[in-house]
Amino acid sequence: MHVLLATSELNPYSKTGGLADMVSALARALAGTGLRVSVVTPLYRGMVHSNPSIEPTSWRWAIPMGDSLVEGRFHCHKPSPNLTLWFVEQAGFFDRPGLYGEVGRDYADNSARFIFLSRAALILARHLPDPPKVLHCHDWQTGLIPILARHARLQTGWAQPPRTIVTVHNLAFQGSFPTASWALTGLPSDWLHWESALHFERVNFLKAGLTQAQAITTVSPNYAQEILTPEYGCGLEGLLLKRYNDLGGILNGVDYEEWNSASDPALPAAFSAQDLSGKAVCKAALQREMGLPENPSVPLFANISRLTEQKGSALIIQTVGSLIAAGESLQFVQLGSGEPTLENAFRDLAQRFPDQVAARIGFDPGLSHRIEAGADFYLMPSRFEPCGLNQLYSLRYGAIPIVRATGGLQDSVIDPRDNAAQATGIKFTTYSAAALHKAVLKALALWKEPAWLKHIRHNGMTADFSWEKQSAEYVALYESVCRE
Ligand code: ADP
Ligand code: GLC
After folding, report:
1. Quick check: CB of 390 below 6 Å from ligand 1?
2. Ligand nearest to the CA of 249
3. Of the ligands numbered here, which is closest to the C-alpha atom of 370?
4. What separation in Å is there between the alpha carbon of 363 and the centre of ligand 1?
5. Which atom of ligand 1 is nearest to the CA of 337?
6. 121-164, pLDDT tens digit by residue?
7. Which domains does the chain show, CATH number per domain?
């Protein structure tokens, strides 16, 4: 079977968050099972320069969008025999400094940019010599693909377009635009209605996918249940309830080739669950790199994330500040960027407590690996978390996760109260600084119990979240939509 994955981000070529990691790891794992896998994604600025293996093809085409004809071209890279990556060149849309926007503002033409990507994906699907049987769309940026495919079948004589699946990585981002953008889709105006993409007088790209795809998945079983409620459904819970029989949750995996503490080129020393001596070296190096006193006996907490409400950044600021002010002995390292008030709040915290807090505002994949390797505990107090990858990386790198029991965090971390023998981290329930505070106090108590600490860390480091396991669920889903 041939499967085409459509995504706006693909690690290591383009990345703002977990979507990039997920799609690239899933594609590799699927190809490893023997499936033929293609991925289609934009060719953003600088990608050709930093990846000489991406080669231009002579496959050029043009898409009528409103009054203009927009030209595009595919670039291609084949990292392994079963895996082909297709990059959509359209300089006007994608040769820009940001993926979605700059200095905190989305590009004004994001609707046009991702309509173009979605239509390009269908050109690829239709004209490849071995057309895909399944087109697997990720998030709102490719949410229009299922309706575009249906239109192609009904009105342009494409006898067998691929079956479509939409995976929701984050329901909070839906791609909502003024209805004028519908004209750029090339779809008839009467196809825009409440049962398709219209949502409160706007075009909603994700809703289009959720109404039209053959199957819907999200990135953890628990989040698949949560999004059926008003608290997590972001206004789409009614629609999701209607599609309950077509909705499932498949937990993300980890690319253990990239996240392998025994061979990670970003780390100053290698380590493993069997031999943690290298982790002590990584901790000392991280303390030096971040300008903190080098001290093995102080527990080092960390967080790496987009700085937003979703990630509970404000809770971290409050909790770390109050614990240190109360005289607790701990260090905290933050890597992230996002909302300017949160960026400034982390800078302020680091200035107030220079011997205990360090904040690096920016995006730095190498440092993110060194932080996971050097940290003793990882804070993830998310308000909601469809899956979350950093708690999985933390588990493998021996940074014990402290998580709010939501979404994929609930599915992937085991608290000692639930199962002492298999515990991998610390969980709390309420989204509040007080609840996080209590959880961090538990971690500080754990730090003073070396045997327990070792047990929990070892459980986490040896837990298996490999894609080899998870990808089988996607293969089963692809087979089932093809049978329908
Ligand atoms: P989300 O996709 O919601 O941002 P995930 O936990 O699924 O959350 O994935 C986030 C990914 O982005 C992880 O690989 C994480 O290490 C990475 N990341 C987030 N912020 C940064 C940053 N400032 N520098 C480097 N990597 C980052
Ligand atoms: C989203 C979610 C995150 C998930 C990631 C990859 O960005 O916020 O929880 O891990 O997608 O699926």
Report:
1. yes
2. 2
3. 1
4. 9
5. 23
6. 999 999 999 999 999 999 999 999 999 999 999 999 899 999 99
7. 2-253+468-483 (3.40.50.2000), 277-464 (3.40.50.2000)
| Distance in Å, CA 469 to ligand 2 centroid | 19
- Is pTM, for the whole model, over 0.70? yes
* Distance, CA of 30 to CA of 470 (rounded, Å): 10
Helix axes 277-289, 365-374, angle to 10 degrees: 130
Which class for 79: exposed (0-12), middle (13-18), buried (19 or more C-beta within 10 A)?
A: middle
- Cα(268) to centroid(ligand 2), Å: 28
> Rounded to an integer, what distance in angstroms lies between the CA atom of residue 126 and that of residue 295?
59
Mean pLDDT of 320-330: 98
- Mapped onto helix, strand or coil, the DSSP state of residue 172 is coil
Question: Which tokens in the block code for residue 93?
Answer: 């849309």
Percent share of the chain, pLDDT over 90: 98
Contacts of 12 (CB under 8 A, 6+ apart): 24, 365
Q: Is the pLDDT of residue 469 over 90?
A: no
Is 305 close to ligand 1, i.e. is its CB under 6 Å away? yes
